[in-house]
Amino acid sequence: MVENTFKDMNYSEYFTNRPTDQITRDLIGRPLTFTNQNNQVLGGYIVEAEAYMGRKDRAAHSYGGRRSPANEGLYRPGGTIYIYSQRQYFFFDVACQEENEPQGVLIRAIEPVWGIEQMIKNRSGKDGVLLTNGPGKMMQAFGIHSRNWDLHPLEESPFSIDLDDNKRKIPREIIATPRIGINQSDPYWAEKKLRYIVSGNPYVSGMKKHNYANNNGWT
Questions:
Q1: What is the pTM of this model?
Q2: Could you report the per-residue pLDDT of 190-207, keeping only the tens digit for each?
Q3: Dihedral sign (CA 68, 147, 47, 131)
Q4: 179 with 162: CB under 8 angstroms?
Q5: Which residues form a coiled coil (predicted)?
Q6: Domain 21-182 CATH class label
Q7: Helix, strand, coil % over all residues of the chain, rounded to 5
Q8: Domain spans in the chain, listed from the N-terminal domain onward
């Protein structure tokens, strides 16, 4: 039996009780779901997530204390949803730490489990690893095309991250790597290993077929 460390925590406690990189690593293997307007539950297990360490982190939207309506979610209390957009894509983050300490975690990929048929429809027929192997793809699979849930506390939204350790899927190995798409002009933050993945899981963005692990990298 796995010790049930976080089951009785609320989201604000979970997302503030230790450093953001540790929170990000702990999210790997946890179920993330979205309940749509038709009461369909869509989602899967988190296999890839990146930590953003706030004002000091040159890759963070809050670097240097930048603050605007677009990134306000990062400044809200831990457990607040921060959704941002790039071109036509939307990305799902959760604020970490206390209010006005603008750190967060970006969920980059899930291994789909629930509502797969609807997610394929939402992705215009794309299936297999292409269904959710990237942050924009995951949000498309959920049918999300706006920032409507930005600034909402997780517990007051259709999103859910299950904190029950007994429902968490256990990776054989969690690997820390540099984050994706970070400006190389600052090597320290570009190379800092703040991206956590399930080793060998095919739904991790950019995972090569020859690196796929048996049982998708789960124990």
A1: 0.96
A2: 999 999 999 999 999 999
A3: negative
A4: no
A5: none
A6: alpha beta
A7: 25, 30, 45
A8: 21-182
